Amino acid sequence: MDKPCVFDFAAHQRLEFGDDLLSDFPDFLLDLFDHAADAADQAVDEVVAHSKEFSVSINALLGQPDELYCQACGMPLKKDDDIAHEPDGSFNEKYCRWCWVDGKYVGAATVEEMIEVCLPHMGWPDQDAARAFLQKQLPQLEHWRT
Ligand SMILES: [Zn+2]
Q1: Per-residue H/E/C for 82-101
Q2: pLDDT digit string (tens) for 6-58?
Q3: pLDDT digits over 84-109, tens only?
Q4: Residues around ligand 1, an ion, CB closer than 5 A
Q5: What is the distance in A from the centroid of ligand 1 to the CA of 15?
Q6: Is residue 38 located within the same domain as residue 78?
Q7: What is the whole-number distance in angstroms between the Cα of residue 90 and the centre of ligand 1?
Q8: Within a domain: residue 60?
Q9: According to the model, what pLDDT value does residue 1 have?
Q10: Do 24 and 73 reside in the same domain of the chain?
């Protein structure tokens, strides 16, 4: 799993100042950047470990900074119960628990099929409006863009 929100402080500084300018930085400052990057990585590792240990999503651990949506069906992932799990027990915050099971995607094969799967669950009285909404929104989700 990719580490979320890895903040590489040194890389960030290089981006901001460029390599030329960075080579003029005193060593203690470069060490400080490296240290900050290590500390950030360590903090991320801890959050990932806590998520698995306590079965709480990373998003919830961080105070829910993101409004998560399943990146295949668009379902809002408001509760940790709705979020998919990997076989090792960790969360997969990209999918809902219906689209991602036992470490693989099990949802509809095409966006058109997914729209038909989603329609009855939306509870919109106007089916045409619901379909138009899904036709606009679903293709923008990560699963269908890749
Ligand atoms: Zn889903």
Answers
A1: HEEECCCCCEEEEEECCCEE
A2: 445 555 555 566 666 667 778 888 888 888 999 888 888 888 888 888 888 88
A3: 999 999 999 999 999 999 999 999 99
A4: 70, 72-73, 75, 96, 99
A5: 36
A6: no
A7: 17
A8: no
A9: 43
A10: no
